[in-house]
Amino acid sequence: MAEDMTAQEIANHLSSEVHSGKFAAGEMLPPERDLCERFGVGRNVVREALTILHGRGLTSQEKGKRPRVVLPTLTTVMEGVGEAAQFFFSGSEGLAHLEQARLFLETSMLRYTTVHATNAQIAKMLEAIEACEAGLDDVEAFRDADVQFHRVLAEVPGNPIFIALHDTFVEKLMKNRAVLPDFPERNRASNAEHRAIVSAILDKNADKAVETLTRHLTRNYGTYFRIALEHGPEAGARLKSAIQEEEAQ
Q1: How many Å apart are CA 212 and CA 215, to the nearest integer?
Q2: Which site among 85, 129, 155, 211 is 20 to 30 Å from 46 CA-CA?
Q3: Residues 109 and 156: beta-carbon distance below 8 Å
Q4: Whole-number pLDDT of residue 144
Q5: Which CATH class for the 7-69 domain?
Q6: Can you give the pLDDT at residue 71?
Q7: Where exactly are the transmembrane stretches of this chain (predicted)?
Q8: Where are the domains of the chain?
Q9: Residues 29, 52: contact at Cβ < 8 Å?
């Protein structure tokens, strides 16, 4: 091995060996000293490489023990993606793209839900609605219940990717929105739409359910969709101005 290998290159090499089965799940990686000799680098570089490997969800770390190989799960993979994506979604344009992606995903899932939701899943929606009702004046309580209502929509298809996407992006999006002064009234309107969505599901009326959900999701952040179509360094300023104008109406 070349003496100037970087931590990233070493991590890539070890990752390939994990994927190839050279290091099996549950097996400990070689001692740091052996890795230093193998790759011709110092201990600090090896430790950095092991940190990268852990960040990829390929190892578990216990204090005083060598890293142990683990098989990455969809949850750990999405968590890693979610952390990196925070930089993209930190701006107004990135948030707008995320909001729009959520709209496409949830309306599609709702059409499926209208046909395939079980009584038990509908009961979970109703439980979330009642929790929302009890927390209309409590920001955190309402958000937790609101997240749960929308998570049920992701659970109905039985596809773990939809659930992981919800847990990684939608939950963070919903829980990090700014709190507006009239939040109890907004919460009351949102929960009324939750009830209307479930009513449409019970009636097997997919068009009505999607119409209500679309209104529900776009009411508070429709401005983001308009700004998402624009580009340039002043997008954030335009968004702030547009929101202020919208709130003043």
Answers
A1: 5
A2: 85
A3: yes
A4: 92
A5: mainly alpha
A6: 79
A7: none
A8: 7-69, 76-247
A9: no
Q: Is the distance from CB of 97 to CB of 228 less than 8 angstroms?
A: yes
pTM of the complete model: 0.65
- The CATH fold of domain 76-247: Four Helix Bundle (Hemerythrin (Met), subunit A) (1.20.120)
For every residue of the chain, DSSP letters joined together read: --TT--HHHHHHHHHHHHHHTSS-TTPBPPPHHHHHHHHT--HHHHHHHHHHHHHTTSEE--TTS--EE-PPPHHHHHHHHHHHHHHHTTSHHHHHHHHHHHHHHHHHHHHHHHHH--HHHHHHHHHHHHHHHHTTT-HHHHHHHHHHHHHHHHHTT--HHHHHHIIIIIHHHHHTSPPPTTHHHHHHHHHHHHHHHHHHHHTT-HHHHHHHHHHHHHTTTHHHHHHHT--STTHHHHHHHHHHHHHH-
Non-local (6+) Cβ contacts of 223 within 8 A are: 239, 242, 243, 246
Give the whole-angstrom CA distance, residue 55 versus residue 116: 38
Cα 170 versus chain centre, distance: 5
| Matching residue, tokens 């990135």 | 94
Q: Provide the token pair at 10.
A: 């070493």
